[in-house]
C-alpha cells in the first residue's frame, strides 16, 4: 500500500516568462499577441503570450506557421541576457526567503515548507512569498501548494496565468480525477493517444486500471504513471546549489607556448563538457577558464552568461576568457574549463536565436555522439590538439564536424 506523507510543497511558476519580461521592458506589449522567437521564416517560436496561444500558436512551432495563424502577431528576437538576469533575481529572492528550494528550470521552483504550518501557515507564507516576488521582480507568478511535487506542478498549470491554489492533504486523487490524462506529467503524445484509444480519457479512469495491467502495457513507466494517476509522489525537493559544476582539465606532457594548440585544446574540451551538459538536460550560467603556467602559478577567469547549453555560445565565452587570461606568454602546463550555475533545462531555451537547421544540427550531433561516442565527432579546430597519429586516422577524418558545418 502506498502512503502519501503529509508534506507541504509549493510549486512557483513565472507565467509566460520570456513574454512577461518583454512586457515589463515595454508595457505597450501587454495584452497583445506576442511571439518571442526567430525573426526569420526559418526561425521557431521560443515563447508566446496567452493572447497568441488563443490562435493555436505554441513553442517550437515554425515562425512562418505562427505568422499564418496570427498575421498581426508581434515577433521579438528575444533577449536571453535579460531573461537570465530576471531568473537570477527571482532565485535570490526565494533563497533569502525559504530554507529549502529546488530550481527546476529558469522559471520554475519547488519550495519545501514542511513543518512551517505549525508556526506560520504554509498557505499564508506562500501567498506572501508570491506577492514579494511580483513586487520585487515585476513579473506575474502562479503557485500551487500541495502534499507533493506532482500535485503542485499539475495544479499550478491549471491556475495559470497569475493564479494560486491549495490542494489539501488527502484530496489529491479527487483533484486529479476529472483532468485529462494528457495533463499527467510523463504522458506524452504517443502514450496519451494509446490511452485515448483504450477509452482512458480522464485521470480517474487511469487510476482505476490495475497496476499489473499498466505494467504489462507500458513496462516500468506504466507503474510510475499509475502512481501519478493516484496522486502518489515521494520525490524530494532537491536543494539548489549553484556550486555544482561540470568541468574538465588537461595537464600536458610537455609545457607549451603554442597558442593555436591551446585554442584547439580549449575547443575540444568545451565541446566535450557542453555535450555532457545537454546529456544531463542542464544549462550553465557561468563559464570559467583555468590556466597553470610552468612555474605552477594558477590563474582563472569567469564570465556570467545567459543560460545556455549551445556549443557556439559556450565556445565564444571560453575563447574570450582565454584571450583575456593568457597574458604572460609563458609556457602553459595545464588548461581547464568549468561550467557552473547549472539549472535544469534543455537546448530549447535558445530557440529564439537559432534557425530550425541549427536546432536539427545540434540534435543530430548529439544523437551521433550518444550512439558512437563523443570523441568521434568534433569541430575541425578541436582536431588540431589531437596527436598526429590519431588526427590523421581515417575514423577521425570521417567524423570531423567539418563535414557537417565549418567550426
Automatic annotation (TrEMBL):
Cofactor(s) this protein cannot do without: Mg(2+)
Location relative to the cell: Cytoplasm
Single GO cellular component term: cytosol
GO BP annotation list: DNA repair; DNA-templated DNA replication; error-prone translesion synthesis; SOS response
UniProt cross-references to Gene3D superfamilies, sorted A to Z: 3.30.70.270, 3.40.1170.60, 5' to 3' exonuclease, C-terminal subdomain, DNA polymerase, Y-family, little finger domain
Catalytic residue list: 108
Keywords assigned by UniProt, alphabetized: Cytoplasm, DNA damage, DNA repair, DNA replication, DNA-binding, DNA-directed DNA polymerase, Magnesium, Metal-binding, Mutator protein, Nucleotidyltransferase, Transferase
Family classification: Belongs to the DNA polymerase type-Y family.
PANTHER family the record matches: DNA POLYMERASE KAPPA, DNA REPAIR POLYMERASE UMUC / TRANSFERASE FAMILY MEMBER
Description of how the protein assembles with itself and partners: Monomer.
Protein name: DNA polymerase IV
Organism field: Pseudobacter ginsenosidimutans
Gene: dinB
